[in-house]
Specification:
18% of the residues lie in helices and 48% in strands. The chain contains 2 helices and 7 strands. The chain has a 7-stranded antiparallel beta sheet. The radius of gyration is 13 Å and the shape is globular.
Length: 100
């Protein structure tokens, strides 16, 4: 399953000294992931994915967000730097589910 979407980068302040930057997957795509992944989720309900964002390609996991019911994708600093992205920017993202 491949999901293509545009989403705004946003910051979650995990702790005072750490911040994490994410994009939120669309609600309908998140429902599809839950159906396909079934009970095969890993720690914290994560699902392994291959991501394409601009010229950057990497493997990571998406995680269910408790408040919205959507999955969220962490976007590490190296990718943001390589792609010239900052929180608040909108990115075109492709996510492919793997290891199911």
């Amino acid at each position: 399953m491949v999901i293509d979407f545009d989403a705004e980068l946003w910051v979650w302040d995990a702790r005072r000294t750490e911040t994490w930057t994410f994009v939120r997957l669309p609600e309908d795509a998140s429902e599809d992931i839950r159906e396909v992944a079934g009970g095969s989720g890993r720690g914290f309900g994560s699902v392994r994915v291959r991501v394409v964002l601009g010229g950057s390609v990497w493997t990571t996991s998406v995680f269910p967000e408790s408040g919205s019911g959507c999955y969220v994708l962490p976007v590490k600093r190296a990718v943001r730097t390589a792609e010239g992205l900052e929180p608040g920017d909108v990115a075109s993202v492709s996510v492919e589910l793997i290891d199911l």
